[in-house]
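cron nightly-structures :: item 1 of 1
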Amino acid sequence: MSITQDARLQPEAATATPLNGLAQADFGNPAAWVVAFILVIMPLIANGFFLIEIFGTTMILGIVALSLMFLAGYGGMVSLMQLTIAGLAGYMTAVLGASGNANISLGWPWWLATPMALVLATLFGTIGGALAVRTEGIYTIMITLAIASAFYYFTNQNWVIFNGHTGINSVVTPHFWGVDWRADVPFYYVILVVAALCFGAVSYLSRAPFGLALQGVRDNPRRMAALGFNVNAHRVAAYAFASFLAALGGVLQVWNYHQISPGSVGVERAIDILIIAIVGGITRPIGPFIGALIFVLLRTFTLDFLVAIGLDGNRFRLLIGLGFLVIVLFSPDGIVGLWERWRRRGEGQVQPGGDRHG
């Protein structure tokens, strides 16, 4: 049976999960269009710092966390190697392209190095996913965590390809049509377009035959197998798609900072992606971007505040951890889930005509 076949699945999948309607509602929400308009005109109202360090970084982290959200929310698979995939894409962009480390980088033009980096990172994530889908639950998490940890130590100790703990600096970014695409405004729009495409792709795929089948696999893999669906094939395909999303975020990340090092792919960074996805909401495509905005704001301004009062700036992670515990305790679906419950409660209390419902 084809991986996208859904002749017998759609009734079950449509009733098994409300995520399809929620994802579809994002595009009909007036508030979403207001936010989109503000993001489009952001260069007119924000300086370079807020444009790139806040909103640009938010969208880049949001793209990587979106890949985790797709796997966990629609496939029921928690992967801790999404940042590793992004890191490999970033490393390959630096190695295949041009950088300040001429003895390592091959000097390919960006239009050749970037697609090759995306292909290699997607292939790496797909192979890792093929290993992970053979297990379930905590074992899947541990396999992806082991891959992330192994990649960190490999990049930290390998000098021939990855330049060891020093990393690769002064990575050359695209410059064509007379435009420096790493300049603040052009690069912001590049990030915005990529983030919008990723968001739209995930929202669309959640309602497509493949997305419905994947959600059926998440809810009842035995029933799906009995219906003739290849459960592992759907899961591996989900990893392939999520890997491509993460790879896009990794390329944007290395263009953003012009460098990449093992510190960018450390295990604690991989945990940050998980926190971002859960805090924002693992059931909606918009959740990872909300979680990323909260994370970036805390990391940027709380760190400076702690240093100003004489405390270790790294303690901002303590605040993030406390916030994570509070959100998970009161709203397992994150900020988005909390907002949905508040909205439904408000709509349910007062109806037209003054009727009240408990």
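cron nightly-structures :: done
Residues 48-75 form the longest helix (28 residues).
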